[in-house]
UniProtKB/TrEMBL annotation, chains A, B:
This is MurR/RpiR family transcriptional regulator. InterPro entries: Homeodomain-like_sf (IPR009057), HTH_RpiR (IPR000281), RpiR-like (IPR047640), RpiR-like_SIS (IPR035472), SIS_dom (IPR001347), SIS_dom_sf (IPR046348), WH-like_DNA-bd_sf (IPR036388). Gene3D superfamilies: Glucose-6-phosphate isomerase like protein, domain 1, Winged helix-like DNA-binding domain superfamily/Winged helix DNA-binding domain. The keyword Transcription applies. It comes from Micromonospora carbonacea. GO terms for biological process: carbohydrate derivative metabolic process. Residues 14-90 form the HTH rpiR-type domain. It comes from the Bacteria. It holds the Pfam family HTH_6. Keywords: DNA-binding, Transcription, Transcription regulation.
Length: 304, 304
DNA sequence: ACCACGGATGAAACTTACTTTCACGGAGCG
DNA sequence: CGCTCCGTGAAAGTAAGTTTCATCCGTGGT
C-alpha cells in the first residue's frame, strides 16, 4: 500500500514531471537516481528500455519498477508512454533557461530577471495544473461551513498563512493566524468539530506546524495541509492535502517560487470561498476597501 | 500501387498521424486495419499492447510489426511512444480565458483555478518583462552599499515588505520592517545618507507609506518605490521606481496577482543582491537553514 | 486444367523486455 | 548484542515483442 487514505487522491494531471519532482524526497536513494534521470530528460527516458534506464541510474530493473509504482504508474511501459506524452507537450522555452536552474555566476541582472520570472511563473502554472479541483472543492466547502478557521505557518510560510487569514477575515469569515506556536497550540486546543485548521509548510516537515495541526485534529477539527511534498509528515495529520509544485534551486533556497505557488493555491481557495456568496463577499470587500480609503492619497492618477 | 520500402527516409515532419494516413492506401489490407485504428485514436493505440492492438485489428502481432516497419518505425515500442507524443501534442491549447477577466458567476472550481493561475502567471511574466534591468541594477547597487535598509508597506503590501526584510536579513544585510506607522516614521527619521528606504504600495497612494518614504528621503536616504502605477503619488518621493504589471479585476480586488507581481520583483532584487557576494550569501543561507533544522521532523519519507 | 510463383498472413518459435520473488546486508532500535 | 525492518539487486518467472516459416490464395504462364 502506498499512502494513508487521504483525500489528496492519486491525481497528477498537471504534469507527471512536476508530480515526480514533488515525490522525489520521499523516494529511496536508488529510486531518486532514477527520478532525477527521468526529470532531467523525460523524452530520453521514454526512449530507453527498462534495463537501459536501470543501468544509467546505476541500479537494477527492480528498482525502476518500484519507482514506477512509487509515482503511481502500473509499470514501466505506462511510465514510458506518459513520459513521451509529457515531453511532447512541454514546448521548450525559447531560450536556454534551465527550468529550476541555478543562476550562472556571471549572469547580469537582465538574465537573472528572466530566469526568475520564468521559474516563478512556471511554479504558478504548474501548481495550478496539478491542483486537484475535487480536493479544493472539499476544502472550500469545509471553510464555508466552518465555525472558526485557523491558519498556521512558520517562517516564510507564516506570511502566506497570515495572508490567507487576512483575506478570509476580509470577506467576513472568522479566521485566525498566530505567529507564536504556544498561542497557536492553545487556540488549536479550543477547536472542535466543524472548525477548520490549515497548516502551511513548504517542506511538510515543520514540527511546529505539524504539532498544531495534530492538536487541532485531535479536537475534532478538520485539517488541511498545504505543502510541496505529497508524502511529507504533515500529510499524516491532514484530512485534506493540497500540494504546490515549486522546484527550488539550491542557491535560492530562501526562494520565492514556493511562496508564489502557495499563494496561488490560497488565491484559488479564497476565490472559491468568496464565490460561494458573491454578494456578501463583494459587499465585504467594498466595506473594507472604504475603511482604508482615508489612508489613500489623491486620485491614484494614472494620468496621461 | 505497391509499397515502396525504398529511400523514403525515416522523416515524417508533418506529424506521424498524417504520415500514416498518407501511406494508408499503400498498405496491405491487414495493415490498413491497424492503420485505421491508430489514426482514429492514437492515444488509445499508444495504451494498447501489441497483442491487444492486433486483436482489435483482427490480425496477428506479426502484421502489426510489419505495419510499424511500413511506416518507418523500428518496432512497436517506438511506434507506441511516438503515438503518445503525437497525441499529447495535438491536445487543445488552453481555452479562452480572458486576460484579467473576472470569474463568471456559474464557474466551477476547475475553471476558477485555471483562470486564476493564468492571470497570476501572467502578472509574473509581464512584470518581469517590463521591469527595467538598469533601474534594478541601481537599486541592487544601492542596497548592497547601504548601511541600513528599511522596508515599508501597509496591509497586503505589508506582507511583501516583511518578506523582503526577512530575506535581506537572512543574507546578512541590516534590514528592518515596521508594521506600525509611528514606529516606521520614527525609524525613518533616523536614516541618513547611504541608507535605503523601500516603499511598497500597489496603488501607489497609500499615504502611510508615502509619508514614511518622504521622511526617509528628507533625511538623505535613497528611496525606492514599488508600485503598479508608474505615475502614482509614491513615485514623487522615490529616487528609483520599480513597477509591477498586475491587472486587477474588480471582483478580486483583494487580489493576489499584484502580490505575486510584487514578490517577483522582490525576488529579482534579492537574487541580485545575493549574487553580489555569492559565497557570503550562500553561507548565510546555510547557517540560517541549520538554525531551524531542529524544528523539522523526519526525512519526509513515508511509504508502505 | 494444371502448375509454378509470389505476396499476404498467422501460428508458433524465439528473443527481449518487464515483473516478481527472494535472500542478503546494513541501519536503526531495544 | 541481537533483533527487525527496509532497501537492494540477482535471479527466476511471465509477458511482450520479433522472427521464422508453413500455409493460403490469387495470378499468370503452360
Amino acid at each position: 500500500m502506498v499512502k494513508s487514505p487521504k483525500i489528496s487522491a492519486s491525481h497528477e494531471p498537471g504534469g507527471l514531471i512536476v508530480h515526480i519532482s514533488g515525490l522525489l524526497p520521499s523516494l529511496s536513494p536508488a529510486e531518486q537516481r532514477v527520478a532525477r534521470l527521468v526529470v532531467s530528460d523525460p523524452a530520453d527516458a521514454a526512449r530507453r528500455t527498462i534495463t537501459d534506464l536501470a543501468t544509467a541510474a546505476e541500479t537494477s530493473e527492480a528498482t525502476v519498477i518500484r519507482f514506477c509504482r512509487s509515482v503511481g504508474m502500473d509499470g514501466y511501459p505506462q511510465l514510458r508512454i506518459r513520459l513521451a506524452a509529457e515531453a511532447a507537450r512541454r514546448v521548450e522555452p525559447p531560450d536556454a533557461r534551465v527550468v529550476g536552474g541555478d543562476i550562472p555566476p556571471g549572469a547580469d541582472l537582465a538574465q537573472i530577471i528572466a530566469t526568475i520570472a520564468f521559474n516563478d511563473a512556471r511554479a504558478v502554472e504548474e501548481t495550478a495544473e496539478q491542483l486537484d479541483p475535487a480536493v479544493c472543492e472539499q476544502v472550500v466547502e469545509a471553510i464555508v461551513g466552518a465555525g472558526r478557521i485557523e491558519v498556521y505557518g512558520a517562517g516564510a510560510s507564516g506570511f502566506v498563512a497570515s495572508d490567507f487569514q487576512q483575506k478570509l477575515h476580509r470577506i467576513g469569515r472568522m479566521a485566525f493566524y498566530f505567529p507564536d506556536v504556544h498561542t497557536a497550540l492553545t487556540s488549536a486546543a479550543l477547536l472542535g468539530k466543524g472548525d477548520i485548521a490549515v497548516g502551511i509548510s513548504h517542506s511538510g516537515t515543520t514540527s511546529d506546524v505539524i504539532e498544531v495541526l495534530e492538536q487541532a485534529r485531535s479536537r475534532g477539527a478538520g485539517t488541511v495541509a498545504l505543502t510541496n511534498f505529497p508524502r511529507s509528515p504533515i500529510t499524516d495529520v491532514a484530512d485534506f492535502v493540497l500540494t504546490t509544485a515549486a522546484r527550488e534551486t539550491t542557491y535560492r533556497s530562501g526562494a520565492m517560487a514556493s511562496r508564489l505557488a502557495q499563494l496561488t493555491v490560497i488565491d484559488c481557495l479564497f476565490v472559491g470561498v468568496a464565490a460561494r456568496n458573491r454578494a456578501r463577499a463583494r459587499r465585504a470587500l467594498e466595506v473594507t476597501a472604504d475603511a482604508v480609503r482615508a489612508r489613500r492619497v489623491g486620485p491614484g492618477r494614472r494620468r496621461g
